[in-house]
Amino acid sequence: KQQKNSKGNGDFCIKNIKQADFGRREIEIAEQEFRTTIPLQAKKTPLLSSSPQVLMETLSALGAQCRWAACNIYSTQNEVAAALAEGGETRVFAWKGESEDDFWWCIDRCVNVEGWQPNMILDDGGDLTHWIYKKYPNMFKKIKGIVEESVTGVHRLYQLSKAGKLCVPAMNVNDSVTKQKFDNLYCCRESILDGLKRTTDVMFGGKQVVVCGYGEVGKGCCAALKAMGSIVYVTEIDPICALQACMDGFRLVKLNEVIRQVDIVITCTGNKNVVVRENLDRMKNGCIVCNMGHSNTEIDVASLRTPELTWERVRSQVDHVIWPDGKRIVLLAEGRLLNLSCSTVPTFVLSITATTQALALIELYNAPEGRYKQDVYLLPKKMDEYVASLHLPTFDAHLTELTDEQAKYLGLNKNGPFKPNYYR
Amino acid sequence: KQQKNSKGNGDFCIKNIKQADFGRREIEIAEQEFRTTIPLQAKKTPLLSSSPQVLMETLSALGAQCRWAACNIYSTQNEVAAALAEGGETRVFAWKGESEDDFWWCIDRCVNVEGWQPNMILDDGGDLTHWIYKKYPNMFKKIKGIVEESVTGVHRLYQLSKAGKLCVPAMNVNDSVTKQKFDNLYCCRESILDGLKRTTDVMFGGKQVVVCGYGEVGKGCCAALKAMGSIVYVTEIDPICALQACMDGFRLVKLNEVIRQVDIVITCTGNKNVVVRENLDRMKNGCIVCNMGHSNTEIDVASLRTPELTWERVRSQVDHVIWPDGKRIVLLAEGRLLNLSCSTVPTFVLSITATTQALALIELYNAPEGRYKQDVYLLPKKMDEYVASLHLPTFDAHLTELTDEQAKYLGLNKNGPFKPNYYR
Amino acid sequence: KQQKNSKGNGDFCIKNIKQADFGRREIEIAEQEFRTTIPLQAKKTPLLSSSPQVLMETLSALGAQCRWAACNIYSTQNEVAAALAEGGETRVFAWKGESEDDFWWCIDRCVNVEGWQPNMILDDGGDLTHWIYKKYPNMFKKIKGIVEESVTGVHRLYQLSKAGKLCVPAMNVNDSVTKQKFDNLYCCRESILDGLKRTTDVMFGGKQVVVCGYGEVGKGCCAALKAMGSIVYVTEIDPICALQACMDGFRLVKLNEVIRQVDIVITCTGNKNVVVRENLDRMKNGCIVCNMGHSNTEIDVASLRTPELTWERVRSQVDHVIWPDGKRIVLLAEGRLLNLSCSTVPTFVLSITATTQALALIELYNAPEGRYKQDVYLLPKKMDEYVASLHLPTFDAHLTELTDEQAKYLGLNKNGPFKPNYYR
Amino acid sequence: KQQKNSKGNGDFCIKNIKQADFGRREIEIAEQEFRTTIPLQAKKTPLLSSSPQVLMETLSALGAQCRWAACNIYSTQNEVAAALAEGGETRVFAWKGESEDDFWWCIDRCVNVEGWQPNMILDDGGDLTHWIYKKYPNMFKKIKGIVEESVTGVHRLYQLSKAGKLCVPAMNVNDSVTKQKFDNLYCCRESILDGLKRTTDVMFGGKQVVVCGYGEVGKGCCAALKAMGSIVYVTEIDPICALQACMDGFRLVKLNEVIRQVDIVITCTGNKNVVVRENLDRMKNGCIVCNMGHSNTEIDVASLRTPELTWERVRSQVDHVIWPDGKRIVLLAEGRLLNLSCSTVPTFVLSITATTQALALIELYNAPEGRYKQDVYLLPKKMDEYVASLHLPTFDAHLTELTDEQAKYLGLNKNGPFKPNYYR
């Protein structure tokens, strides 16, 4: 259905342009917390993106001509999309609850436009990149680089690179320290509580919880739940993370050792089939199951689509799956990511990510010919530190400066970088 | 507007009877966690109540004929009220967002019904009791007792008692240990996070927060926010609570020492005018202000209703109050209780409270003539322990029993009570 | 062996007067933290005491003529006793490692002195009071009151009172809120770690620990160990404390459910035979067993004095008890109180206790005839708050004062007391 | 002074051979916790070492002929050294409280022995390596490699390597994940509390503390003190660590902002002159100052050796430095490392480090010619994971194994390594 914004422009596809005012207010609320200024000169650059909405306006203000599709069929806030469409600077093709077909249609509408050719790709998950590789490979001739922020997307890029098929430089911003810590540890520490509360109103105190995976996401979830008085068990495959879980006070178990007794099961592994039908069969009545990890592969939801089980949608994003004996499992977001589907990402975290992405875009765009080859790069440590330093004033935090004598003693430049690359 | 439930009964007044199915589902979800069985014989007893909805059905099942009005103009969940109305056993007069007049009208509809006379009052805040005192004092002749669960209501009862005007026995269930800890410490530890997230999506990490009051509610709020990485300051008037705050790692300050620097202000005092216009004038842009304490007196909201300030409703329960220089204060729930308005009370906490109330009702109803005089009583310690013990199986918690030798050594009965009355 | 201090005075009995200088330094270190001033006029009062050393000098400075014996055969610091003896104002009869006979001999030397008659008793455990009852009952004619600070001593006083045998007023300072919280919760939170480290150097991270008893001491121990990364189980007999343990995130078990798997067993019950031979038989090799609770009854140490078990003293206060199969249990302080035997009580806690005791002494001494009968009294709430307020400046803590309007609203005096008596 | 052990061997130099029995008991206590078995075949290899004592016996048991000198003039436990000397397999040249000259003399006695030539160096700090470079460079011809575990030693090796002067392969075990986390984060989380308690008996609750540096050591110190109820401020030079401190709930300040108000100052920077005379002049009376970081450079202790300040040794490792106005600063360990001087390293941490060192030694010793060049290497990730997995059984921790399908999905070998090299 064709809609137009108040300026008569119709080059977008969203749920409802009338929600623009409400969305604009949401953006303003976000900006209350989103205080980082990216101190850069404006430049004109056509940009394709499937990245969070907040970044779009900043990039437009810097001079980018952005076209934007969603990276996930549920992650779009319709009101915010409407506000962007109404603003008119970013072309938006996204709504909450797209079908699989819608999803690819939106991406295609982003890319395939007459008289416009992107020179930068800002991707989140790699679907946009994948689409261009598949449908419009010639576009890469004019593209200066790809900035990718997700585990999956980065994984795909490394595979392309290994296969010798990567035809432009790519920046892996997923693994910058600042972005990692915020997206995973700090954000999930809060969103696990938020997501569970909004969907189930469960009380955390005294609950027994098993968290599968003790990476950054798992660490955040465990710390939050422990602080709220839950008893937390951890499963791990990596002995180093396993030992960390022990030292942080969590019993390290195999899933089947505790599956009968736990009240909540949370997956944070990045793996597939971590919770399978056999586990689900043994859970107790009322057990809550959700995924904080990756994609929708961690819980084998397909195994629950069998005739003897009844599904009952009790709230948005909450299904009761009912066994023949009456046992109910509470499945959240149909096994998709809880933090994307059932909680919001704090604007401060978006600001960290967006700043990282923007700096990476600028770095790739401005880099002299030849600095970056057709390979995947980590964000330079110094830029990582720069992103962090831009966010310190929010906390009224005062950094100490090295004296000349100290810098010399440590063998460091007074302006950083301050740590080796592997430092987290 | 007259509505009827599916059985043709119209003795209720709620928002929309069509929401009954949805509400029934909500109740079922609650029952997933609300597992306590009150192991009592059924009895028939007409009951007036302004207490949480979940209790009503239990009491009905026990044989009570209940009529129910809301205790707060915002606290009713319309769907749940509809489900109760549809069920037909409890007469419901309540909806979310009643006016002051509606509120008293509902109470009157509860009380003033031909051919029905209550013999027990279950009150929350004392308004129901107050109304009967004022309008239908003769009703007390047949009333066997009052069970009251709020600070305010208890306060009123003690005043009646002191003035020699209390004409039936009353049970103060507010000050039972179990109920206190859950309603205040444990519940607020979770609801402060939930309430702030649902309204503002604020990230807690690194935020500076001042919590006014370090009673049970304050302790819960401070512990939760500290665990989420906030920097928390506390104000107190009582040196004992103040010293506890120090020992728990919070800087004890006067409000004006930190008011310019904090990101969030939370009141938990039970006092009035704890945050006044002068404080609000000095807060920084974007500061969030909310009340977890009592009534709506803690923040002097009236002082913000002046011509030079602009109010902007940005979301449900969220107002921006805008100063002439553009500074915005984010006021939640117009200074009313955040945990009642913007978060949900976990069903487990409702179960604790409801069990305490039900036991108190039964105790008063069954007590032999003369055991209770026209006075205010605390729930007997042993019943308090009984409420706790009924909730232990939820956690698969295994209590240790005293041996005869140990009981003798300690001078205790093996079945309790185990602690002196002042033990918390 | 007769010793004299540098002034030629020999009315004391300690280990070694030559340690006086070292002990004086220890006292000075303590005074660095022990900053409370008790702002009172000096008065002359003969005093008997078995209380901590630090208080003695303060009381002497206030004009008391003190004679002091130890309350525990291990708790005396010889150097500090020497310093007091050298100072000459307090007569000291105490050393570390007294025999049972020594213990009573010291008490008798305190009491039984020609030309001196006490008018106040400051007791800790009730042995001193017991001795006078037994040997010198006539002394009570001139005694104005007893101040008692221990659970045991208070228990004995209530029994005397119940039996109608208490012949002077007694003040139970053990149950004042401030004293309780510091002596138990806050102090044990630190001393459990300190005591275990000094004796065993054990690493807490990842250790499985069972804590028997979740009163204030148990709460302190559990919180500290959880924070250090231990996995903590709790046993309880009281359902209210049990539920608190659940909500604080501890699995509530019976001892035999976890006894095979734990690394550390800690008793904090005030009960007897909490850990018995059967439990000890099932512990795993290397398990550490200690008592934070009360007296030396909690662990049935006597049951370990059997021929098939070998005891090996590996360090001061540390025994390995060795089973025939080579299994070793690490028993600390022979089952006596770990915090008294193997760690130090922070001077700040001593200051709280000492201030409470001093105020109670002064209250009893100064009270007009007839205010206190031959009964056991709790410290008045207002004095309890006063003790707390005297210690706030140490933390640079700033108390908020009620406005007149607020005091009226709350129905409180602006100077307190601020809480009901049962508030903890 | 020449001593001989019971077998008549005199090739050692320690404090007192008579302490051997006591030291043997200490070692046995340690072995209670030190349960890792290094499952390797014995081999004969002459080894020079300045590493912890516990490792020596293991290496001897594996067939190494070890000679050992201390890495720090205070870190030797005389009794343990005596036990090793008595055992006779390790030649020991070390005692607590060596002078600077003693220190180098001991190292020389280790190295310079007729008819013996080392083929591996196990160093901690680089002094041993330095001495051989300086005095016996020819020895390197037969040396197969250096294993170095300290920051300083590793720094020196990288400098040698950069300068092209490194003449054998070297393994940097300091930066293995497992070793880092345990030596720094987990160990310091406990030893900061232990070190402060043993020296000062300070109560942590309510104390204001500034921690300089928020690396792994700082993170451990801050977490422990926060958990004990201290109010903690952090200083940092690195914006990434600074942001982490903010998100963990610590105010980030410059030292001079809080120096007047804090009760305790802790340095954990690895830097020099972090606390200088100007800071010390402004501290309040009774402030405790200590170093958890590195060497003895962090606090400018030399600046306190001036005539107007009086030093008073109040206990072992505790000095009062007294200003003309009577102000006292409590300086611990004369500014040397608190955790080495005033607390013990848990045997579990020693086990982690020792296992890492042993595996690195074996790797270098067994490596085929040419695998390692004259360069500095990190411990291979897989060995790092192996060290971790060897320590899991202590915690009864059960690792989950990848299914074939999952391993394929993740692109991992089922036996690891599981994470990229930069993962911490």
Please provide a written account of the structure:
Four copies of one chain form a homotetramer. Chain A has about 425 residues and is α/β, with parallel strands linked by helices. Chain A has two domains: about 15-180 and about 345-395, Adenosylhomocysteinase-like (Rossmann fold), CATH 3.40.50; about 190-340, NAD(P)-binding Rossmann-like Domain (Rossmann fold). In chain A, about 40% of the residues lie in helices and about 15% in strands. The first copy, chain A, has 15 helices and 15 strands. An eight-stranded mixed sheet of chain A has the order 9-8-7-10-11-14-13-12, with helices on one face. The longest helix of chain A has 24 residues, at about 175-200. Chains in contact: A-B, A-C, A-D, B-C, B-D, C-D.
Task: Please render the helix and strand layout as text.
Four copies of one chain form a homotetramer.
Chain A: H1 20-33, E1 45-49, H2 53-61, E2 64-69, H3 78-87, E3 91-93, H4 100-111, E4 120-123, H5 127-135, E5 145-148, H6 151-162, E6 170-172, H7 177-200, E7 208-212, H8 216-227, E8 231-235, H9 239-247, E9 251-252, H10 255-258, E10 264-267, H11 277-282, E11 288-291, E12 310-315, E13 318-322, E14 328-332, H12 338-341, H13 347-366, E15 376-378, H14 381-391, H15 404-410
Parallel strand pairs in A: 1-2, 1-4, 2-3, 4-5, 5-6, 6-15, 7-8, 7-10, 8-9, 10-11, 11-14
Antiparallel strand pairs in A: 12-13, 13-14
Helix pairs in contact in A: 1-3, 4-5, 7-8, 7-13, 13-14
